[in-house]
Design brief:
- This protein is of the alpha/beta class and about 290 residues long.
- It has eleven helices and ten strands.
- It has a six-stranded parallel sheet with strand order 1-4-3-2-5-6, sandwiched between helices. It has a four-stranded antiparallel sheet with strand order 7-8-9-10, with helices on one face.
- Helix 8 packs across helix 9 and helix 10 packs antiparallel against helix 11.
- The radius of gyration is 19 Å and the shape is globular.
- The two termini are about 30 Å apart.
- It binds adenosine monophosphate.
- The site of adenosine monophosphate has 16 residues, from helix 3 and strand 5.
C-alpha cells in the first residue's frame, strides 16, 4: 500500500494510471468504519486500482468547533486500509490543498444549490464542491464511490461531474447501520451513552415514513409530520431539518413520486447527524 502526502506525488502517480486499468476512488474524512470499508470493498471489486483519500476539509464544516472535534485516528485508518489491500492512500495536508493565497472556488448555482442552501446544509456547499473537485483533479479516478446516507453530497457530486464534464462515474452504495438502525458515522463516537441510545430514533423516524408510504400515503406534509412526531418524544434529538424532495434535482415535492429522497438532519446532543432513504416506487427503496 502506497501512502501519498505530497500533491506532486499524487499527480505523478495518477499520470501512470492508464496502463494499470480503471481507478476506483473513495474520498473520506477518515476515522474509518464499516460504512467506509463497504465503499472500499466495492472499489476493490470493481476496479483494478483502488485509491482512498483521508482529508478532513476545514472548508466543509459549519463551525470551527465541529471541525476541531471531528474524530481522527490516522494510524488505525491506515491499518484498516492495509488489511483491505488498498493500493494508494492519499493524505493531503490542508495547507497544501488550501494555501494562504488560494483563491479559486467551485460554486454551485441554480435550483439544486438553492435547495441545498435552504436546507441549511451542515457544511459549506462551496467548500465541499471545491474540495471534491481538487481531489478528483489530483487522483483522476474513473469511478468514485459515495454512500447513500450523504444524499446531499451525492446530488452535489453528480451535478458537478456533469457540469464540469468530468469523465468520472459516480457509484452510490447503501448505508451500513448498527444493530438498532443508527447509520454508521465517524461522529457517533462523540455521542454520550444516552444520546447514542436516542440517536437510533432518526432511523426509526425514516422507517415510520417508509411504512406510511408503503400504505399508500403520498402527501409529503403527512409523511413529514410522521417523522416529526416520531422524533418529538426524544429530548436528546432536535431536528435541524427534514427534506422531502426529488433525489437528483432536490426540487421540493407536495406529492411523492418515484425517486423521492427523505432526509433527516438532526442534532443529538451537540452532534450533527444525517440519515436518508430514497423511495424508488412501489415497495422499492435505496437505503
Ligand atoms: P465521510 O468520511 O463521513 O465523509 O464519508 C466518506 C464516504 O463514506 C461518503 O461517501 C459517505 O457517504 C460514506 N459513508 C459514511 N457513512 C456510511 C455508512 N454508514 N454506510 C455507507 N457509506 C457511508
Amino acid at each position: 500500500m502506497r501512502i501519498i502526502h505530497r500533491l506532486e506525488e499524487m499527480t505523478e502517480t495518477a499520470r501512470g494510471w492508464l496502463a494499470g486499468g480503471t481507478v476506483g476512488f473513495v474520498p473520506t474524512m477518515g476515522y474509518l468504519h464499516n460504512g467506509h470499508m463497504s465503499l472500499v470493498e466495492a472499489a476493490k471489486r470493481e476496479c483494478e486500482i483502488s485509491v482512498v483519500s483521508i482529508f478532513t476539509s476545514p472548508l466543509q464544516f459549519a463551525t470551527h468547533e465541529d471541525y476541531a472535534r471531528y474524530p481522527r485516528d490516522v494510524t488505525r485508518d491506515l491499518q484498516l486500509l492495509e488489511a483491505a489491500a488498498v493500493d494508494v492512500v492519499f493524505l493531503p495536508r490542508s495547507e497544501d490543498l488550501f494555501p494562504a493565497d488560494f483563491s479559486t472556488y467551485v460554486t454551485l448555482t441554480g435550483p439544486l444549490a438553492a435547495q441545498l442552501e435552504a436546507a441549511a446544509i451542515p457544511y459549506a456547499l462551496r467548500g465541499a464542491a471545491t474540495t471534491i473537485t481538487k481531489l478528483f483533479q489530483l487522483v483522476r479516478p474513473d469511478v468514485a464511490y459515495f454512500g447513500q446516507k450523504d444524499a446531499q453530497r451525492v446530488a452535489l457530486v453528480k451535478r458537478l461531474v456533469h457540469d464540469l464534464n468530468m469523465d468520472i462515474a459516480i457509484r452510490v452504495l447503501p448505508t451500513l447501520r448498527e444493530q438498532d438502525g443508527l447509520a454508521l458515522d465517524s461522529r457517533n463516537t462523540l455521542l454520550l451513552p444516552a444520546e447514542r441510545q436516542a440517536a437510533a430514533s432518526i432511523y426509526q423516524a425514516l422507517l415510520a415514513a417508509k411504512a406510511f408510504i408503503e400504505q399508500g400515503e403520498l402527501r409529503a406534509s403527512v409523511v413529514e409530520e410522521a417523522i416529526r412526531q416520531r422524533l418529538a418524544s426524544s429530548t436528546e434529538v432536535s431536528i435541524e431539518y427534514v427534506v422531502i424532495c426529488h433525489a437528483d434535482t432536490f426540487s421540493p415535492l407536495t406529492l411523492l413520486e418515484p425517486k423521492t429522497l427523505i432526509l433527516i438532519a438532526a442534532r443529538v446532543g451537540s452532534v450533527p447527524l444525517l440519515d436518508s432513504i430514497v423511495w424508488l416506487g412501489s415497495n422499492l427503496w435505496s437505503m
